[in-house]
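Example with several molecule types.
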Amino acid sequence: MKRAWRLLLRRSLTSIPVLMLVITGTFLLLENASGDAADAYLVAIGGGDAGYVADLRAEYGLDRSVWVRLWFYISNLAQLDLGQSVALNRPILDVILERLPVTLWLMGSAVALSFVFGSLLGVLAGARPGSATDRTLSIGSLALYSVPSFWLGLVLSVVFAVQLRWFPVSGIETIASGKTGLARAGDIALHLVLPVASLAMLYLALFLRLMRAGMAEVWRQDFVLAARARGIKHHKIILQHIARNALLPLITMLGLQAAGMLGGSVVIEGVFGIPGFGRLAAEAVSGRDAPLLMGVILTSSILVILVNLAVDMVYALLDPRVGASDPA
Amino acid sequence: MNFVARFIRSPEGIAGLVLLSLLAAAALLAPVFFPGDPLAIEGRPLLRPFEHPGLPLGTDRLGRDVMAELFHGARASMIVGISAAAVAILVGALVGTLAGFGGGLIDEALMRVVEAFQIVPGFLLALAFVSVVGPSLTVVVIAIALGSWTGPARLARAEVLSIRERDFVAAARVIGMHPLEIAVKEVLPLALPPVMALTSVIVAGAVLTEAALSFLGLGDPNIVTWGSMIAEGRNVLRSAAYLSIVPGLGLVALVLGVYLFGEGLVEALARREGQG
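Resulting C-alpha cells for the full complex:
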C-alpha cells in the first residue's frame, strides 16, 4: 500500500507542470479568438458607445497585457475561481459542477457496461485464437469500432425512439413530470439508455479487441505451456492464467481513453439533447464564450489526470512489480 | 515470397483494399461524374431515392443531389484523413526524434509538452482551435493533427533512444556532423517505419473526428462532407432518416476499410518476420 501512495504522490507532482502548460497553452490559443468578453457582452445587450466599451474592458481587466491577465487567471484559479461565463452570466465553476454529474453518470455507465461485456466477449474470442468464434467476434468488433458514435446514436434513436417509441428521443428527464425519488431516477435511467448504448458499443469493441489481443499474447508464454504440461484443465488455464494476465492492459486503456471519452460525450450529448458537460463545450463554442470554453478544457484535463492517477493506483495494487523499484 | 503475395493471403487486407479502392475511385471520379458544385440545387427538395432518373438517391432538404454529395463527401473525408495523419506523423516523429536524440533538458521539456497535449481531450482541442481560427479545410486538418501527433511522438522517441546508441551514430559524430543533421538525416528515417504502423489508426481517427466536427457545424462550410450531410439530414430525421443514414454508412465503410487494410499490412509484415 505504501508503494502505491508513493507512486500517487510522485505522479501528482509531475502532473503540476503539465497542467500549467495546458493552462498557458489554452489561454494563449483562446486569446486569439476574434472578439473578447466585452464584445460578447455588447452583442448580448445590443451595443454601447466607445467610452462604455473602454470602461467595460477596464472592468474585465482586458486593457492589461496578455501575461498580466494570464497571471490574474492563474491566481484566481488557485482560489478555485474559474471566472464568469459571458453567455450565461454565471460563475463558470457553478455551471460546470451543475453539468458534470450527468456526464459522469453517462460515461461511468457506458464504461462499466463495455468493460464487463467487452472483456467477457474478449475472453470468448481469445479462448481459442483463430477459431470461428474468434474470427467472427474480431471482425464484428472491428466493424463496430468503425462506426461513428454520433451516427450510431442517431440510428438508435430513429429505430428505438422514433419508430418503436420504446425510449424518449432526447433530454435527460421528462420536463415538468413532477416525479420524485425512485420514479425520477427511473425516468432519468430511461432517458440514458440510448446515449449509454451508443457510447458503450464503441468501447465494447475496443475492450473486446484489447482483451483478445492480450490473451493471444499470453498464450505464447512459457507458463501457459507449463500449466498445460501439468495437466490443468483448458477452461481453468483460460480463466485463471490467461484472462487474469490479459486484464491488466485493459485497465491501462481506461486511463488512455479517458480523454477520448470526454471528447465523445460532446457529440453524444448533442445528439440526445442531454444538458451535460460535453454539450457545455459546444454551447461555449456557439456562444463565443472563451472563458467558459477555457474552463471546460481545464476541467476535462483535470478529470483526465485524476482518472489516470486512479488507474495507476489500481494498477499498483494489482501488480506488485509496479513502483517497486522506486527510490523510497 | 514478396510483400504483395503475403498481403494477398490475408483476407482482411483484401477486404480493406477493395473497400478503399472503391471509395478512392468514388473520390477521384467525383468531379467527372458530378461536375459542378455538389452544393448546387438540382431538383425539388426531398425527392425520394429512385423517384427521378437523373437523381438516383433523391435530393436533400434544399434540393441538392444526394448522390453527388456522397461522391464529393468521400473526397473530403479522404483528403482530411490522409493529410491530418501525414501532418501528425511527421510532426510527431520529428518532435520524438528531437526529444530522444537531444536527451536531458530538451527531452524533459518536449515530453512535458507531449503530456500536456495528451491530457487535453483531442476533440475539445480541435473544437477550440477551429472556433478560434475559423473553419476551413486546412484548419480542420491542423486541428485534428493537434490531437493525434502525441502517439507518433512517444513511439519515435522510444525508437530513437535505442537507435542513438548504435555505432553509425557515433561514427557520424566523429566525422563532425551537426547533431541536428544526425537526428534528422540519420536517425529519423530509421525511427519512421515503426511509427508508420500507427498510420491506419490515425487516419481512421482523423476521418471520425472530421465527421464529428462537421456534424457540429465546425467543418468548412463550402465543402460537402459526410458529417455535414448527417447533420443536415437530422432536420428531417423523422420523415427521411436515410439522408442521415446513408452518409454514415459511407463513413463506416471508409473507416472499416482503413482498419482492415492496416490489419492486412501488419499480418503481411508479421509473416515476413516469422519466416526469418
